[in-house]
Amino acid sequence: MSYSWKKILIKPESTVVDALRVIDNEALRIALVVNDEQQLLGVVTDGDIRRGLLNNLPLETPVVDIMSRSPITASVNTAKEQLVKLMESKSILAVPLMEENKVVGLETLHHLFEEKTYHNPVFIMAGGFGTRLRPLTDTCPKPMLKIGNKPILETVIRSFIKAGFVNFYISTHYMPEQIQNHFGDGSELGVKISYVHEDSPLGTGGALGLLPDDLPQDLPLIMMNGDVLTKVDFERLLDFHTENQADATMCVREYDYQIPYGVINGKGNKITSMVEKPIQRFFVNAGIYVVSPSVIQSVPKNHHIDMPTLLEQHMNERDNILMFPIHEYWLDIGRMDDFNRAQADIHTLGLD
């Protein structure tokens, strides 16, 4: 049984934001909606929240509007083997445990099984110049700048290792020797690290063409910029991509922009509506992708191309590029303000 289950209980009047905090903080991928008597009213998963975001529901929406009202539950006395069978048959990751119609616990597949090992390649882009962080990057590649007591790139790699990934490739260009000297072949971290070097910058997608031919032919690859700090659930991302048989999956973040003026709509010279300082919501590229072998193989060696352009080409061919909204912590360390924020955030994220 998960010993953090009491921390994932929320009230029906809670909002989607409240559920997000619970799911992110406790890492159990679920929140349980209960009344004052601790009777189960419904459950909210990160999948429910992502569907809500895709349907443009505001974060202030009550959780009762997105929760599952008929969740799968089990008696607190159910044997482990039966719980495993139940969760596998229903394709769920957690089951609330009940006693006399009240929630008394939570069991998860992750807890019932040992940690998984993923042999999917993880490809990290670490070749950029980091010009917006000068003078810090005059003598150090941006991924090797320290956040807390570790280089950014080491924090990224350790987050993948924690999720069970063991097979890494790093793309280098600017000051590659500093990266290679620090990580070597990965043996000190208990993983395998290989390097591909861009003699000239190839864009965010071009380095795919430099990967070796002996990559696993049946496993999708996770690709990520080496200057991103995040607590995204890489296992869930990979499962989403595989379950939907996507050619590629792009992680996206919701971005809000408030127009600082009243917006006037009209027809001819007649005003039809007025909206004071409206908020526009967009999905933006988070710099994290899952790509299938066919996409990797489509990139010629030493061919310059950015990932959005590459994905657009495949969209036109097969229309099978998906997006995966992430609500977890995410920070692209591109500017000095971002670098300073990361220094403040790192100790509270469990990433240091």
UniProtKB/TrEMBL annotation:
Transmembrane segments: none annotated. Residues 1-59, 67-122 form the CBS domain. Keywords: CBS domain, Nucleotidyltransferase, Transferase. InterPro entries: CBS_dom (IPR000644), CBS_dom_sf (IPR046342), Mannose-1P_guanyltransferase (IPR050486), NTP_transferase_dom (IPR005835), Nucleotide-diphossugar_trans (IPR029044). PROSITE patterns: CBS. The lineage of its organism: Bacteria, Pseudomonadati, Pseudomonadota, Gammaproteobacteria, Vibrionales. It is an enzyme of class 2 (transferase). GO terms for molecular function: mannose-1-phosphate guanylyltransferase (GTP) activity. Its EC number is 2.7.7.13. Pfam families: CBS, NTP_transferase. This is Mannose-1-phosphate guanyltransferase.
